[in-house]
Design brief:
By secondary structure, the protein is an alpha+beta fold. The chain has eight helices and eight strands.
Length: 441
C-alpha cells in the first residue's frame, strides 16, 4: 500500500477518535466544570442583566431630547361668512372667507430634565442592590455546584474502590474454585461444595460487572456536571486518598460570610428599600423643560422656496407635579412592600437558624465519620486477614465450606461498610473546607 494512503488513513483515524478530558485532582476538575457548567453561566448572565438594570435606572435621571416634525394637508379649509357691508357691499348680504393655508410644516424639538424625583433615585439604589444580589446568587450557585461536583467526584472514586474490591473478590472466588475442584477431584468433598464455589464465582463476576456499570454511570454524571459530551472520553487520574483533618479545624467561618445568608440579607435590605421607594412616590416631582419649533404655511407645498416664511415658537419652564389621589394604587403598593419586608425578615431568620443547625450537624457528622472510618479500616483489615486464614484452613481440611462462606460474607460486608465510611468522611470533610474558605474571600 502506498505511503500516502497510509498517511490519509492515519489522519482520518485521528480525527475520528473521541475527544478526551484528563483530570488529576478534584480542584482541577472543579475549575473546568465551573467554567462550563450551564447553571453558572446562567448566573453570570443574570449578573449582566442586573448591571443593565442599573443603567436603565440611571436613564430617567438624564435629560431627554426629542425632535419631531408634523406636516398637515388641510383638505377642507374652514369658511366664515363676513357681512358684506364691511367691504362696502349691500347690507344684509355676506361674503364667504376661508382661513388658513392648505399645507403647513412644523419641525420642533424639546428637552426635559427631572429636577426632583425621589422615587427614581431610590430605584437606582435598589437596582445596585439587586446587582449585588445577583452576585451573591452566583456565589450560592457555585457553592451548590461545588458540593455536587465533590459528591459526584468522590462517588466515582468510591466506585473505583468498589470495583477494586470486586476484582479482589473475583480473584478469591477463582482461588476457592480451584481449591474445591482439586478437593473434588481427590474425592475429599462432594459435588455440593464444588457447585457452591462455582456459584460464588459467578456471583463475583456479576458483582464485578455491576461495579463496572456503576463506575460508568458515575463518570457520565461527572460529564453532565462539567458540560462534557457523553461521547467524549473523561479520565480521572486520581485514587481516593484519605487525608486527616484535625477536629479543631471544623467550622471556623463567620456565619454571615456564607452565600446563603448573604443572599437572604440582601433580599431583606431590598425589601426595606422598596418600602421607601413606594413612599417616595407621594413626593412632588419637579421637571424642567425647553422646546423650540418653527412653522411654515403655503398653498403650493413648496417649503424649500427662498420666499417661504417661517414663524418661530419656543418656551422654557418648570413643571410641578403634586400627587393628590391615584385611586389608592400608591397606598396599596406601600402596604404590599411592607408585607414583602416581613416575608424577607422571616426568611432571613429561618436561614440563620437553618444554617446554624446544618453547620452543627455537619460537625457531628464529621466527628462520627472520622471515628467510623478508623473502626472500619481496622475491621476490613481484620476480616481480610480472617478470610485468608479461613481459606488456608479449608485447603487443609480443618474448616468446613459453610464456615468459610460465613467468613467471606463478613469480609464482603466490611468492604461495603468501609466504602460508606469513606464516603461519609470525605464528603463532610470537603463541605467543611468549602465553608471555611469563605472567610478567605
Amino acid at each position: 500500500m502506498p505511503k500516502w494512503i497510509l498517511f490519509v488513513v492515519f489522519t482520518i483515524s485521528l480525527y475520528s477518535l473521541p475527544a478526551q478530558q484528563v483530570f488529576v485532582s478534584l480542584d482541577q476538575f472543579t475549575d473546568y466544570a465551573l467554567q462550563h457548567n450551564p447553571a453558572i453561566q446562567q448566573s453570570i448572565l443574570n449578573e449582566k442583566v442586573e448591571s443593565q438594570n442599573v443603567n436603565t435606572a440611571i436613564a430617567p435621571m438624564l435629560p431627554t431630547a426629542n425632535a419631531q416634525a408634523t406636516i398637515n394637508d388641510n383638505v377642507l379649509l374652514p369658511t366664515t361668512l363676513v357681512p358684506a357691508e364691511l367691504r362696502g357691499g349691500p347690507p344684509g348680504t355676506y361674503i364667504p372667507l376661508q382661513f388658513g393655508t392648505k399645507y403647513s410644516l412644523n419641525p420642533s424639538g424639546n428637552i426635559n430634565l427631572n429636577l426632583v424625583n425621589a422615587a427614581n433615585y431610590q430605584q437606582l439604589s435598589i437596582a445596585k442592590k439587586n446587582r449585588q444580589l445577583a452576585q451573591a446568587n452566583t456565589e450560592l450557585n457555585i457553592e451548590q455546584i461545588k458540593t455536587s461536583l465533590a459528591q459526584a467526584y468522590y462517588l466515582y472514586l468510591l466506585y473505583q474502590s468498589n470495583y477494586d474490591f470486586a476484582a479482589h473478590n473475583l480473584s478469591n472466588a477463582d482461588t476457592l474454585l480451584h481449591i474445591t475442584q482439586v478437593r473434588f477431584d481427590n474425592q475429599y468433598i462432594d459435588e455440593l461444595d464444588l457447585n457452591r464455589s462455582k456459584s460464588a464465582e459467578l456471583q463475583a463476576q456479576t458483582q464485578m460487572e455491576q461495579s463496572r456499570i456503576l463506575l460508568e454511570k458515575s463518570l457520565n454524571t461527572l460529564k453532565l456536571l462539567a458540560a462534557i459530551g457523553v461521547s467524549e472520553k473523561l479520565v480521572i487520574q486520581y485514587k481516593l486518598v484519605i487525608q486527616d483533618m484535625p477536629l479543631a479545624e471544623a467550622i471556623t467561618v463567620n456565619q454571615f460570610s456564607r452565600p446563603e445568608l448573604k443572599t437572604s440579607m440582601l433580599k431583606s435590605n431590598i425589601s426595606e428599600m422598596t418600602i421607601l421607594r413606594e413612599k417616595l412616590r407621594f413626593v412632588p416631582e419637579l421637571t424642567a423643560f425647553a422646546n423650540y419649533g418653527v412653522i411654515g404655511q403655503n398653498n403650493n407645498f413648496r417649503f424649500s422656496d427662498g420666499g417661504q416664511q417661517w414663524y418661530q415658537s419656543g418656551a422654557l419652564g418648570v413643571a410641578l407635579n403634586v400627587p393628590v389621589f391615584a385611586g389608592g394604587v400608591k397606598y396599596y403598593s406601600v402596604q404590599k412592600a411592607k408585607l414583602n419586608r416581613q416575608i424577607a425578615a422571616l426568611d432571613l431568620q429561618n436561614t440563620q437558624l437553618k444554617t446554624a443547625k446544618e453547620d452543627q450537624d455537619l460537625v457531628l457528622d464529621f466527628v462520627k465519620a472520622k471515628s467510623d472510618l478508623k473502626a472500619r479500616q481496622r475491621q476490613l483489615s481484620l476480616t481480610d486477614r480472617n478470610y485468608n486464614l479461613a481459606l488456608i484452613k479449608y485447603r487443609n481440611e480443618s474448616l468446613t465450606f459453610d464456615n468459610l462462606v460465613n467468613v467471606q460474607n463478613e469480609m464482603l460486608a466490611s468492604q461495603q461498610q468501609m466504602l460508606q465510611a469513606e464516603a461519609d468522611y470525605v464528603t463532610s470533610q470537603y463541605k467543611i473546607k468549602l465553608i471555611n474558605s469563605y472567610d478567605k474571600k
